[in-house]
Design brief:
Elements: H1 12-21, E1 31-34, E2 39-41, E3 55-58, H2 61-66, E4 70-71, H3 84-87, H4 92-101, H5 110-116, H6 121-132, H7 136-154, H8 159-165, H9 171-182, H10 186-189, E5 201-206, H11 213-221, E6 229-231, E7 235-241, E8 246-253, E9 260-266, H12 273-283, H13 290-297, H14 304-309, H15 321-330, H16 336-350, E10 352-353, E11 364-365, H17 369-372, H18 384-399, H19 410-418, H20 425-434, H21 447-452, H22 462-469, H23 476-493
Parallel strand pairs: 2-4
Antiparallel strand pairs: 1-2, 1-3, 5-9, 6-7, 7-8, 8-9, 10-11
Helix pairs in contact: 15-16, 15-18, 15-20, 19-20
Length: 500
């Protein structure tokens, strides 16, 4: 077996063991290619195991395709979760991949994108080949083609809409690229569509186990905004898009115990579909590798028991950056319930009603910065200072002084935001944690964190907590979720003293 690649793979023995045992925990962390069939598979492929001397391992689907292998029709590599080893943090590759997910290559040249992450295009290409086994454009094209393959397999969307949804502006270029990668034209894969045309499509969004979907829903349910989103014990739903042509989504567990979520999506603009799915994968942290996170954190006596108790805890993101910013400002030094009440009032007063409610309970869009920049939010109960902070943030976003570009390094993002009146370190880090899904964001001034990390001892100072958390990098945001949950559970089980 050839393991002599210049980009990272799990240990070859681990790859071999995972392949033979069909271990779902390694799904997306490497791909198995078979020289006798010229097909590449997920580690959990149900097909009979090939002979060891015919096996090649690749760190990415793009690397396997660059080597001349085509995706398996049985295990479907398009369903693999991403690999957060290079999707997270501030590394050049992670920042570039975030740009790609946001559609940067739709408008930027490769040179311009490389400049955005602070390197030359030649160096960017070298880094991608070293780490992912393929240059940036090949990684980008493979991602689009795998999404197209999923749409062709799981939906009845017309091929022209599949091309648009997967980021191709030309049906001719889409057909040619798909034929080259899959050795068959798109329409041949579409011979027996698995769904019938309708207003919504259903897609499978895979994750690596363990995954605590109930915990993410519980976190979001306590913060859900009536009219904008509906969250119950089993699902998340939201309205989005334009008021006259709204879209909606509904996310729940995939039936049958598969390691996947079931997405029902109505998207009036097919060209936005790939970006919407990427946004949902980020929001529900579907590409995290709980093994690597656990390995990095379990040496801590503070975190070890929490990791054992909740091994599938993930980082809940937010749908929209400005919405998270407003929520963070409203949440300064007040309870979650109080902040939600204020946010609900803002939605009811300034949110945009959709033309026709697509789903019961989904009837308003959260107001954008242009809707709040000149209004007096004291009318809905905000203090003078917080009302001014929300207006200031809205103005700064409209002026371009701040933004939610996903490729920003954490320190740069925090520095830009704390320069605004009313925004401190806690608020900036909370926004980085929820809006950017940055794995190392850490609102160290948080009182609950400082108490929970003390393990029943004297409350830690912010400085002491930061010193303790140095050993938790680059996964400090996950420690926030564990400590918040432990504090919440402790509060729920502590008997209340009777009032006098």
């Amino acid at each position: 077996m050839d393991h002599a690649h210049d980009y990272p793979l799990p240990d070859p023995r681990a790859c071999e063991q995972a392949r033979l045992s069909r271990d779902a925990r390694f799904d997306g962390l490497f791909f198995t290619a078979v020289t006798s069939t010229r097909i590449y598979c997920r580690p959990m492929c149900p097909a009979p195991a090939p002979k060891p001397h015919n096996v090649r391992y690749y760190a990415s689907a793009a690397a396997a395709e660059a080597a001349g292998f085509r995706p398996c029709l049985r295990c479907r590599p398009e369903l693999s979760p991403g690999n957060d080893a290079w999707q997270r943090g501030d590394h050049v590759i992670a920042r570039t991949l975030k740009l790609m997910e946001g559609g940067a290559l739709d408008d930027l040249s490769m040179d311009a994108m490389a400049e955005r992450v602070g390197v030359g295009s030649r160096q960017l290409r070298r880094l991608f080949v070293e780490r992912l086994g393929a240059p940036p454009m090949s990684v980008h094209t493979t991602r689009r083609l795998l999404f197209a393959k999923q749409l062709l397999t799981e939906t009845a969307l017309p091929v022209t809409q599949v091309a648009l949804a997967s980021g191709f502006r030309s049906i001719r270029r889409f057909n040619a690229a798909f034929l080259q990668a899959n050795r068959m034209p798109p329409r041949e894969l579409r011979r027996h569509p698995r769904a019938t045309p309708g207003n919504a499509i259903t897609l499978k969004l895979a994750y690596r186990p363990p995954y605590d979907f109930a915990a993410i829903l519980a976190f979001l349910r306590g913060r859900a905004l009536p009219g904008v989103e509906v969250v119950d014990e089993h699902s998340y739903a939201r309205v989005f898009g334009a008021a006259d042509t709204p879209g909606w989504l509904h996310l729940s567990e995939w039936p049958g115990g598969e390691h996947a979520l079931r997405l029902q999506l109505h998207c009036p603009q097919p060209a936005q579909m790939l970006h919407l799915v990427a946004r949902l994968r980020r929001m529900f942290d579907l590409d995290a590798n709980p093994q690597s996170i656990g390995d990095a954190l379990r040496e801590s006596p503070v975190l070890r028991p929490l990791l054992r108790k909740w091994p599938g805890l993930r980082l809940p993101g937010g749908w929209d950056g400005f919405e998270i910013a407003v929520r963070a400002i409203l949440g300064q030094q007040v309870s979650v319930a109080a902040a939600r009440t204020l946010a609900t009032r803002i939605v009811q007063r300034y949110g945009t009603p959709v033309a026709a409610s697509p789903v019961p309970g989904l009837e308003r869009l959260f107001p954008g910065p242009e809707a709040l920049v000149d209004v007096d939010l004291r009318e809905v109960g905000l203090t003078t200072a917080r009302a001014a902070t929300v207006r200031g943030v809205a103005r700064a976003l409209l002026d371009g002084r701040i933004d939610f570009r996903s490729e920003q390094p954490l320190d740069e993002f925090v520095a830009h935001w704390v320069a605004l009146p009313g925004i401190g370190e806690w608020t900036a880090h909370y926004m980085a944690m929820r809006a950017l899904s940055h794995p190392d964001a850490f609102p160290a001034a948080d009182l609950i964190l400082r108490r929970a990390a003390a393990q029943g001892g004297a409350e830690l100072s912010t400085k002491a907590l930061l010193a303790l958390a140095e050993a938790w990098r680059p996964w400090r945001a996950y420690t926030v979720m564990h400590l918040w949950r432990s504090a919440s559970q402790a509060a729920a089980t502590t008997p209340r003293k009777p009032r006098a």
